[in-house]
Write a sequence for this structure.
């Protein structure tokens, strides 16, 4: 259970005018330098979350606990990260829950790693494979920053060689050519386990679908998530000027056992027919 007041070591978010915000780890004796003045950490520690605080220049800020989405969007990164709109849907669709063992390959800056580690809880674990040392080091620092390092095992390897683990509950594959590694992923997850990948183009989707069929995955779904915000002004509600549109195609599938593929194919075809009939 989290505290109702800010404590040393906590991650905090300071939101100022026009929603300009800063995320920091509270440390005794430290300062935050902003263009609207200096805020002393000692003046923030001990205050209730939601308090209004002021810089030495009198600029107002609100002291808040950052959401997981805030943390992910503000991660130090050298590559494109997954957006919260995609991450949330992935977690729900793959049924990620406390106590599970979940795997990923293509750690990147660690945004999905953090989301998975947060969701599996203290009793769960995440195993993350990455090929590049610099990316893994950055991801490790990001995971440590949010206090979830004890839940994550990092491994450095070309995943063409396969994985050490088996019977994982779910696997998220974030590489440009996921279709080349479907056999390795299949060997790492349990029967009925979930698979997901995110890729940006149609030709990648086509190749991945072929590979999933070849390696006995079923209940395959392809979708994309579009997000549009609206201005929260009662007298002039309208869409904001920018929209988070296409970030990638999500492909979901389940591992099935040999011999079950024909029935699974029939089920997929039945679902397709029912959807088409419902659209008419």
């Amino acid at each position: 259970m989290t505290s109702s007041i800010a404590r040393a070591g906590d991650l905090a978010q300071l939101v100022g005018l026009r929603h300009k915000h800063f995320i920091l780890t509270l440390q005794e004796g430290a300062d935050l330098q902003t263009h609207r003045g200096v805020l002393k950490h000692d003046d923030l520690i001990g205050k209730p979350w939601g308090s209004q605080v002021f810089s030495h220049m009198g600029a107002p800020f609100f002291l808040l606990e950052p959401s997981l989405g805030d943390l992910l969007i503000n991660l130090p990164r050298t590559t494109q990260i997954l957006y919260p709109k995609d991450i949330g849907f992935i977690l729900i669709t793959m049924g990620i829950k406390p106590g599970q063992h979940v795997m990923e390959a293509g750690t990147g800056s660690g945004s999905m790693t953090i989301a998975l580690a947060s969701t599996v809880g203290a009793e769960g674990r995440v195993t993350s494979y990455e090929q590049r040392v610099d990316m893994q080091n950055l991801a490790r620092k990001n995971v440590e920053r949010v206090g979830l390092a004890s839940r994550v095992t990092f491994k450095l390897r070309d995943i063409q060689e396969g994985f050490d683990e088996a019977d994982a509950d779910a696997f998220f594959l974030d590489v440009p050519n996921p279709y080349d590694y479907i056999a390795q992923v299949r060997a790492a997850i349990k029967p009925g386990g979930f698979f997901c990948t995110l890729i940006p183009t149609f030709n990648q989707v086509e190749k991945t679908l072929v590979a999933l069929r070849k390696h006995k995955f079923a209940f395959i779904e392809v979708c994309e998530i579009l997000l549009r915000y609206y201005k929260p002004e009662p007298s002039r509600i309208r869409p904001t000027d920018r929209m988070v549109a296409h970030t990638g195609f999500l492909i979901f599938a389940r591992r099935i056992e040999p011999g079950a593929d024909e029935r699974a194919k029939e089920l997929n075809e039945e679902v397709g027919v029912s959807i088409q009939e419902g659209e008419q």
The first helix runs from residue 41 to 44. The longest strand covers residues 189-199. Residues 271-280 have pLDDT under 50 and may be disordered. The radius of gyration is 22 Å.
